[in-house]
Structure formats: structure tokens, C-alpha cells
Amino acid sequence: MAKITRGFAGRRHTRDPRLPPGQYDTGNRWPVLSAEVTPKPDLSTWTFSVEGQVEQPTTWTWDEIHMLPASTFAGDIHCVTTWSKLGVTFAGVSVDSLFDVARVLPTATHVVAFSHTGYTTNLPLADVTNGRAWVVWDYDAQPLPVEHGGPARLLVPHLYFWKSAKWVAGLRVLDHDEPGFWERNGYHDRGDPWLEQRYQGD
Amino acid sequence: MTDRQAGHPNAWQTATVIDISAETAHAKTFRLGLTQPSRHLAGQHYVVRLTAPDGYTSSRSYSVASAPDASNDIELTVERLADGEVSTFLCDEVIVGDELEVRGPIGGFFVWDGDTPAVCVGGGSGIVPLMAMVRLARRTQRAHLVHLVVSVRSPADLFYADELPGAETTVVYTRQNPPGFPRPPGRLTVADLPAAVTPDVTGYVCGSSGFAETASQLLIDVGLPADRIRVERFGPTA
Fold it and tell me: What is the ipTM of this complex?
């Protein structure tokens, strides 16, 4: 149980029920938090790959991935640094559509998303399938800005946003769990904002 | 990369405010006595959690400004943001003797190991984690390993002014210089960075997102590979 801080009342009036515990509404702002230098994207050489525990390892070019069925997400995103952004819209392709092509093997249990910058993050397979994850290139009907991960990022909105890898280059499907960049640096392996799974041990 | 234990934060603990000092008109340094001390790495941060009587909580992360040492204390420097629920409370209400809930140290990437060369570039309050690196380097007689470049608008915006400038530190003023300062006010350029950046150097960039982009590119321009640059961004963007 949290200890009461002398003199603190807080500024909130009514708390939006869409906010998970410990989060605040950042409004129309969108903070940029990344540990790497922002890359310079080149759509002519951009690729996205699904590899590992799949029947058909597949690499899509920028044009090829746009041939897959379009899919959108409308809802809320939550950053472990305690901001949430409510009512946002992203468009791209569902990870399910990518897996329909690559055909995940029954042995698969986890994925590692990897980025063109070298960033990685691990996720249970169940968190990126059945309509829960996307590769997105539009934000609010505009191309996703590079500082927010453009040309394309992973989107796993039901988990803290470090799982939604910026500048995503692919998914490596694994038969075991393998901690990614922040997960090796003290952050939680799953990162459910409603359970406040911020750090290892939460 | 550190192993996962290195970044494992401890549970919430109660810290006592031992001292408060003003860095500028808008920033204060809080010296906190920890009940469960845990040696931090230069560059790491703590989370501070405020709790209202009805159970409402608000938490924010603040970089540790002090170098790791044998004491049970840490120093956090907090910039007061007008719309910041936690920073305004800390800067306006908290007095010596108050107890605060904290958790940390956190972060295993934006850290300096203490014995490899580093170039640190900070904008405004982005100096805070970098100052922990400079202080550690000075205390361990390794000041030559860390070169700090800090960019602020004016002398009134400079944290830790009595420790800057010093050996291996460069202060750049973007709008207003102190009297007699030779460099004209203006944005950070390649000329403000150390000339010979070798590939074994790690770059640490901390500041607003816009500053971080600019400073990272300058480090690339002076020869540092992008994958040798570690970035900590803060603050909102539109």
C-alpha cells in the first residue's frame, strides 16, 4: 500500500477509465522516447521479414507489404514512463496477415521483434496474434513520422509501448523466450499496463 | 550490455529529504536518504511516487545527479515544469524532513561504466545524468575520460554552475552569454565538440527530443558511429 505523501492532493478531477493505474493522459502531445539515434529511412531498401519457427520465412519490400490486407487500430497507447495517449488511430497490416503467409510452426511460443537500428523486444506469441498486433505506417491518416518509428513500427497497444518496436525490420519466431533490449535492462518481459508490469519482478 | 540483474530495480522504499538546494530559478536538487540503499550506476534514474490521501498516485522518473558513492544518499535534480503535477509539487511543497516514496535505480543502457572514454552532450536539464558521470570521473581521478558539453539558453539556466566549466567541460549558451564569454551565443555546432572522437568512445546524449536529434547528428558528424551513441530523450512533442 502506497504511503501518503504529506501535502499532496494531485491535480486530477475525474480519472478517465481508459487510463491504466499510474498513467496520465498526455493529451494531444506525443512524447518521443528512444535510446538510439533516429535512423534515416529509405523506402527503396526497406524490408520486413518473418523468420525462425515458420514454414515459409518471408521478406516483404515496402510495396509488397502494402499488397496485404489493410488493417487499422483505434484506441489507446500506454508508455511505461507513465504517459498514455487516448483515442489514436494507426493503419498498416495485421501481424496475423504476415503469419498467414509465413505459417508459424506449432513449436513456436514467443517472438522477438527486431529493428533496423538493432533494437529488440520479446513478446509471447499470443500477444501478437488474433488481432492484437500490427505493423503500422500511418498515424491519424498521415505517414508515421520517423521519430515515432516511421516508416513502419510494430504496434502492440495492449502492452507498454516499448514493445511496439520503432523502425521495425521483422519478427523472429522462437520456441523459447529471449529477452530484448529493455528487458535485458531491467524492464518486464510482458509489460501489461493494467497489471503495472513495468520492471522485472513486477 | 549489462545483464538483467544490473537493471533490476528494487521495491518501493521511503526516502527522507535531507537537503534541498536551488540549481536555477526553476530547478532544485533534492538529497534523499535511502532506507534501502542500492549502489547506482552513473546515468541511472529513480521513480518518485506521490500518493494523495484517497489513494491517487502520480509518479515520474528523475535522473540521479550524484555519483555513486559509499553513502546511503542520492541526489535528484528536478526541473519545475509549469504543467508538471509531480515536479511542481516537489519544487513548491516539499521541505527538508519530508518522506518520499522512491524506486530504483533503474536503467541499464544509459550508464557509464566508469573506465571507458565518453563524450556527453546535454541540453538544459539533460545535463543531470551526465553530471553523475562527470562527478564519478572526477572522484575516481579519471576526469580525462569524460568530456561534457552542455547547451543552455543563458547563464541563469545552467545547473551545477559552480562545477562548470572545468577540465573537460564545455558550456554553450544559445541565447545569452555571461559577460566576456568569447563564443557568440548560438546553437551547438561541430566546433563545440571535442575534435578527436575515436571509435572506442561512447556518446551519451540527453535532452529534449529536438536537442537529442541535433546532438546525435553532430556526434555522427565528428566521426562517432550511430551505434556508439546512447540517447535519453525527455519532454513532450506536439
Answer: 0.81
Q: How confident is the model over A95-127, as pLDDT tens digits? A: 999 999 999 999 999 999 999 999 999 999 999
What nine digits make up the cell of A71? Answer: 488493417
CATH class name, domain B118-234: alpha beta
Domain count for chain A: 1
Domain that holds residue A167: 45-195
Return the ∠ at Cα B79 (arms to B73 and B84), rounded to 5°: 115
Q: Name beta bridge partners: B160.
A: none
Beta bridge partners of A168: A115
Domain of A104, CATH number, reads: 3.90.420.10
Among B residues 38-67, those touching chain A with beta carbons less than 8 Å apart: 49-53, 55-61
Q: Which residues in chain A are closer than 8 Å to B3, comparing Cβ atoms?
A: 184
For the domain covering B13-106, report its CATH number.
Answer: 2.40.30.10
Q: Does A10 touch chain B if contact means CB atoms closer than 8 Å?
A: yes
In this complex, is the C-beta atom of A178 within 8 Å of any C-beta atom belonging to chain B? Answer: no
B141 touches chain A (CB under 8 A): no
- Residues of chain B with pLDDT > 90, as a percent, come to 78
